[in-house]
Fold this sequence. Notes:
Layout: H1 2-7, H2 9-14, E1 32-37, E2 46-49, E3 54-58, E4 76-77, E5 86-87, E6 92-96, E7 101-105, E8 115-118, E9 124-127, E10 137-140, E11 151-153, E12 165-168, E13 174-177, E14 184-188, E15 198-199, H3 201-205, E16 218-221, E17 227-231, E18 234-239, E19 244-249, E20 265-268, E21 271-272, E22 281-285, H4 292-297, E23 307-312, E24 320-324, E25 333-336, E26 342-345, E27 348-351, E28 358-361, E29 366-368, E30 378-380, E31 392-396, E32 402-406, E33 426-430, E34 444-448, E35 451-452, E36 457-463, E37 473-479, E38 482-484, E39 487-489, E40 492-495, E41 497-503, E42 509-515, E43 526-534, E44 537-538, E45 542-546
Parallel strand pairs: 21-40, 35-45
Antiparallel strand pairs: 1-33, 2-3, 2-38, 3-6, 4-5, 6-7, 8-9, 9-10, 10-11, 12-13, 13-14, 14-15, 16-17, 17-18, 18-19, 20-22, 22-23, 23-24, 25-26, 26-29, 27-28, 29-30, 31-32, 32-33, 34-36, 36-42, 37-40, 37-43, 38-39, 41-42, 43-44, 43-45
Bound molecules: 2-acetamido-2-deoxy-beta-D-glucopyranose (NAG) (6 copies).
One 2-acetamido-2-deoxy-beta-D-glucopyranose binds near residues 65, 67, 68, 69 and 89.
Amino acid sequence: MVKFLLLAPTFFIFFPSVMTQTIPSSDGSQGRWRLLHANVGISAMHMQLMHDNKVVIFDRTDFGPSNISLPGGRCRIDPSDEALKIDCTAHSILYDIITDTYRPLMVQTDTWCSSGAVLPNGTLVQTGGFHDGDNVTRMYTSCPDDICDWVEYPNYLSRRRWYATNQILPDGRIIIIGGRREFSYEFFPRPSPRRQTFQLRLLIETREGNVENNLYPYVHLFPDGNLFIFANTRSILFDYNQNRVVREFPRIPGGDPRNYPSTGSSVLLPLDENEHSIDPEVLVCGGAPRGAYQQALRGTYVRAISTCGRLRITDQNASWVMDTMPIPRVMGDMLLLPTGDVIIINGGQSGTAGWELGRQAATRPVMYHPSNPSDQRFSVMEPSPRPRMYHSAAILLTDGRVLVGGGNPHIYYNFSDVFYPTDLSLETFSPPYLSTQYASIRPVILSVDDTVSPGQRFLLSFSVGEYIAGSVLSVRIVAPSFTTHSYSMNQRMVVLRIDEIIDNETSSSYTLSVVGPSSAEIAPPGYYLLYVVHSGIPSSGVWVRLQ
Ligand SMILES: *[C@@H]1O[C@H](CO)[C@@H](O)[C@H](O)[C@H]1NC(C)=O
Ligand SMILES: *[C@@H]1O[C@H](CO)[C@@H](O)[C@H](O)[C@H]1NC(C)=O
Ligand SMILES: *[C@@H]1O[C@H](CO)[C@@H](O)[C@H](O)[C@H]1NC(C)=O
Ligand SMILES: *[C@@H]1O[C@H](CO)[C@@H](O)[C@H](O)[C@H]1NC(C)=O
Ligand SMILES: *[C@@H]1O[C@H](CO)[C@@H](O)[C@H](O)[C@H]1NC(C)=O
Ligand SMILES: *[C@@H]1O[C@H](CO)[C@@H](O)[C@H](O)[C@H]1NC(C)=O
């Protein structure tokens, strides 16, 4: 009876986005949502998974009291704060995956719309923000005794970095690119004694007046050591050492911008060491048509972009190959999952990024399967019970779940009388591969060398209930991302070369001899999550440190 009602035509009229999909599954074949906490006190605007399985989360300091107090009666006193000059609430928390608990952290200056990257030694470096925070660098280092907190370095940056993108480099430095009205890049650590910035013409040329449409540029480190930088509709291969454009690629077809506030997203597809030569491919999906921002200000929320462009840059005449997502999406997050698939999650189906400018939450994530035939690349997942609009975020967790939080399309923490109230919850999405029906073929990592060196062999043992002979077995490392504004900085996956599989006969366990990534350009040094994937089903991740 219920099914019949759901299939009645009126249902489609009221919920056009559901038209092409089946009704929600209960068997986990479209994944599962779970609410972890209805209220963690802040809105998860920026998120970074650390190698101690804790997640650093923060929003901003200049929009009034959050719902979690600073510990020990501390307060933040900021005469220049427009919303609250004495603020005794926290705007950052540390979420512990294992215990499913969280505690407040203290940020002194404004982290709004900032960027970050994790150093090879595991310390998170966050840069910039707004107002008194716009040239501050902050560091967070994990500690075993749970008292560690942010340390701030005021006036560290040479320019204000608000809506910039960071990328970890092969030598362990971080490059910080762009920001609102800043058409330049600089490095962490800064050279001494003098700070240095370098102009980036692409950012000047792609800026569209006050709307911009080129903020939070998509930056991917390529195996040849150059950076791929995408802004608006254009993209270049860039040699940051010599401040030189190596190549410019064709504009993405369709003519519509893909960067903030026409926020789409982008990933570098997995780099596969088993290929004869590594063939990097970039995927850019979603966004909002040119003019969407101005139209939204006038109350017209235009349909988001539904196309993805995929660029294989080693082709001499590289050109974008276009695909159409089953659901249009602006402000969608794109994450590489342990299987090598890409999940496109969060965001809206119309309007654009910015205060109150998004509409029609895109509650159903979509999975993109990069190696499927072109007409079978997408599958649609179970809808989230909560909209996740502007200032929401998603990251991959150690065990393969996706952590989703945030949503704050207002100047303040407004919980009523607004479209899409500020959301303080955290929830997880478990992709179909986590379904218990795969328990017998899910690999379990028993041991692995915890340090991996470029090009060096290391051993890894795993067990599996039922080994499917001839099925695809792979070992993958994933760099956890710094995610904000629908873009996951530093995210990358390398499929490692397995050069021997030893069957331990008696114990249904196997030992693999695996070769570390062949260079720091393919995988910069740092902490990675390592997964064994057997027949499409990933193990839980274990942390390895790449030298
Ligand atoms: C959080 O919100 C609840 C419910 O509105 C309120 O009772 C509590 O005082 C708030 N806590 C803080 C620290 O703002
Ligand atoms: C990592 O390096 C940074 C910069 O040198 C330093 O401030 C931080 O304390 C280091 N972290 C660890 C865990 O050693
Ligand atoms: C940023 O740094 C510059 C140069 O050190 C300084 O003059 C300026 O006041 C700083 N801006 C803020 C907002 O602190
Ligand atoms: C690339 O394009 C140029 C100019 O259109 C053409 O001459 C050349 O043959 C193309 N190369 C390949 C490999 O398609
Ligand atoms: C949002 O919150 C602010 C600060 O609490 C308040 O001044 C404003 O009226 C609220 N806006 C709406 C639409 O409720
Ligand atoms: C499996 O065999 C390898 C190589 O002989 C050995 O190093 C490893 O300890 C064995 N693992 C288990 C779980 O028996």
